[in-house]
Automatic annotation (TrEMBL):
UniProt protein name: CBS domain-containing protein
Keywords: CBS domain
Gene3D superfamilies found in the cross-reference section: CBS-domain
Domain of life: Bacteria
CDD domains according to UniProt: CBS_pair_bac
């Protein structure tokens, strides 16, 4: 089985997409992350849902989980609104050492190794200078386990 057999159309965002729009896309489509594309439409990075949360959750709550417990429920439910006006560029942790990008001929093991190495739940598939789609962790695991 090859990447082309596991390929899924996948939404993309740009560096200038508002983070709240990206968060809505993640939530509305139950996605593990998003492919961030550059001006030419090629993968620039992967924005995992956890990176959006990292930007949204106040640093003091990340550093000391006990502080998150003392915030009342009314205020705790609004923390995502702190991202208003911020772009995907801000949510990215920096240029990754290795992009989770492969070609349509990649094997299941190659894709799994790339996901493990890059710690991302999706791999972009590029062929002939165009983004073809992505292979998600869910699809990969379903195929590997025979689901």
């Amino acid at each position: 089985m090859r990447a082309r057999d596991l390929l899924t159309d996948f939404p993309t965002v740009t560096l200038d997409t508002p983070v709240l729009d990206a968060a809505r896309l993640l939530a509305d489509q139950d996605l593990p992350g998003l492919i961030v594309v550059d001006e030419s439409g090629l993968p620039f990075s992967i924005l995992a849902g956890t990176q959006v949360l990292q930007l949204a959750v106040p640093t003091y709550c990340q550093d000391d989980p006990a502080l998150a417990r003392v915030v009342d429920e009314a205020h705790a439910d609004t923390f995502l609104h702190a991202m208003t006006g911020q772009t995907v560029r801000r949510a990215l942790p920096g240029r990754p050492h290795e992009l989770p990008v492969t070609d349509p001929d990649a094997t299941v093991l190659e894709i799994a190794a790339l996901m493990a190495r890059t710690r991302t739940p999706l791999v972009a598939v590029v062929s002939e200078g165009r983004l073809q789609g992505a292979v998600t962790l869910q699809t990969l695991m379903d195929r590997m386990l025979g689901s």
